[in-house]
Design brief:
There is one protein chain. Helices cover about 35% and strands about 25% of the residues. It is α/β, with parallel strands linked by helices and about 240 residues long. Helix 3 (about 95-105) packs across helix 4 and helix 3 runs parallel beside helix 5 (about 140-155). It has helices spanning about 45-50, 75-80, 95-105, 110-125, 140-155, 170-185, 200, 220-225, 230-235; strands at about 5-15, 15-30, 30-35, 60-65, 65, 80-85, 160-165, 190-195, 205-210, 215-220. The longest helix has 16 residues, at about 170-185. The strands form 2 sheets. Strands 6-7-8-3-9-10 form a 6-stranded mixed beta sheet, with helices on both faces. The chain has a 4-stranded antiparallel beta sheet with strand order 2-1-4-5, with helices on one face. The two termini are about 30 Å apart. Strand 4 and strand 5 (about 65) form a beta hairpin. The protein has 2 domains: about 1-80 and about 160-240, Rossmann fold (3-Layer(aba) Sandwich); about 90-155, no CATH class.
């Protein structure tokens, strides 16, 4: 497999507070990687450094063998990095289809007719095709999460960053979301998924990374990582199965 993403010695601090400390790992093309860690572990900051929302103080981010540290989020999106955000922020006064078209036209750079066909296909894949003319502001939490995923997919990502998309959902809704992510992974899209609902990750990912206090604590086979004494101590009191 070809390496699609590499973080090398990446660190980020805000004054005296270090939120990411010397993080190094790679993601292979077509791989699904899960990221876990307690609140404040640096997970979202790490995503922000990959997507370009913030820049590392130290270290490098490479995508498909080229450094992208200097590129703004829009340029990284054009290269094939799509992401969802932990709290969905759709354009509430626009329809579901219009929201996704923003990603198709500006993120993927497709002409209008092609973008419409592509975005309708994305809405079918994410279970939103019957609501394409519904205002995004009237959607339920589950459908907002689906829309967040659809907007990321509309940019035609090679690498998809998912930030706690299962948070706040019922168990039934989590299972539906897991099936959706599985189908995306089956298409060959590389995925990095931050999630507190561990059993959702375990159903999808090939590898699991644990962050704690901004440092990479574990990186390996999901089952072996979760059986680690250090990881169990961090997640004491959290249901793992």
């Amino acid at each position: 497999m070809r390496e699609i993403l590499k973080l090398e010695g990446v660190s980020k601090n805000y004054g005296a507070v270090t939120v990411a400390n010397d993080i190094t790992y790679s993601v292979m093309e077509g791989e699904a990687v899960g990221i876990i860690g307690p609140n404040g572990a640096g997970k979202t900051t790490m995503f922000n450094m990959i997507s370009g929302d913030v820049r590392p103080n130290i270290g490098h981010v490479q995508f498909e063998g080229q450094r992208i540290d200097h590129l703004p989020p829009s340029a990284r999106c054009h290269r094939g990095i799509g992401r969802s955000y932990q709290v969905p922020h759709p354009f509430t006064g626009m329809t579901v289809l219009e929201n996704v078209l923003v990603g198709g036209t500006y993120g993927a750079g497709m002409p209008e007719r092609e973008a419409v066909d592509h975005c309708i296909s994305v809405l079918e894949r994410t279970g939103l095709h019957t609501k394409m003319n519904t205002l995004a502001g009237s959607l339920t939490l589950l459908d907002r999460k689906r829309l967040e995923l659809a907007r990321a997919l509309s940019t035609k990502p090679k690498l998809l960053l998912l930030d706690e998309i299962a948070g706040g959902l019922t168990e039934h809704e989590v299972h539906a979301l897991v099936d959706m992510v599985k189908s995306i992974h089956a298409e060959g899209i590389s995925i990095i998924w931050i999630e507190h609902i561990v059993h959702a990750l375990m159903a999808v990912v090939d590898r699991l990374i644990v962050l704690n206090f901004g440092r990479l604590l574990k990186n390996g086979d999901p089952k072996e990582v979760m059986e680690s004494e250090e990881v169990r101590e961090i997640y004491m009191g959290i249901e793992l199965q």
